[in-house]
Q: What sequence folds into this?
């Protein structure tokens, strides 16, 4: 029994991984259950043994992607203990992050598709953004400043990715980094 559960869990993880890759590449609305299952090496009929609906899959994929992102951002913050917020922003607003949407911020990669999803998806996104806002607040920012930092970072990365390969993309990244400095908490 436990081996069966383990096998089922591995299969589920494989489906989630395949879906995340396809969603980032083709968008949520451009990816069907059949293509997710095919990429997973499974038949489409097996999907419902793991997920109630495509919406359920989206919520779980989003949860996986946001937790992965949170781990990367936390690691970047820990690398700069004197200024964790700077470490997080330097990673998030980097050319490397911009140039790798397949492994970068799912909110930016999927923002248009996510805006059309259910209230449960919006709640998942809101919870993640609250965690990010809380990080800034724990590092001395007011809530208003924290919300401004998150909005600036996500907006900057969105524009920079749209313009990838153009000088204007680099200008947006630089402007985002420079502007984030202006939103910094006052020195004590």
A:
């Amino acid at each position: 029994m436990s081996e069966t559960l383990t096998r089922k869990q591995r299969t589920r993880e494989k489906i989630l991984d395949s879906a995340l890759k396809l969603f980032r590449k083709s968008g949520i609305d451009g990816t069907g259950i059949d293509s997710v299952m095919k990429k997973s090496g499974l038949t489409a009929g097996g999907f419902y043994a793991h997920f109630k609906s495509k919406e359920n899959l989206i919520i779980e994929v989003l949860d996986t992607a946001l937790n992965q992102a949170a781990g990367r951002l936390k690691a970047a913050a820990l690398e700069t203990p004197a200024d964790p917020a700077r470490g997080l922003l330097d990673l998030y607003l980097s050319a490397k992050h911009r140039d790798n949407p397949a492994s970068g911020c799912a909110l930016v990669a999927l923002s248009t598709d996510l805006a059309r999803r259910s209230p449960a998806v919006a709640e998942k996104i809101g919870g993640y953004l609250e965690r990010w806002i809380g990080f800034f607040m724990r590092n001395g920012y007011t809530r208003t400043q924290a919300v401004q930092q998150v909005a600036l970072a996500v907006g900057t990365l969105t524009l920079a990715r749209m313009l990838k390969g153009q000088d204007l993309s680099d200008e947006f990244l630089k402007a985002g980094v420079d502007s984030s400095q202006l939103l910094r908490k006052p020195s004590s």
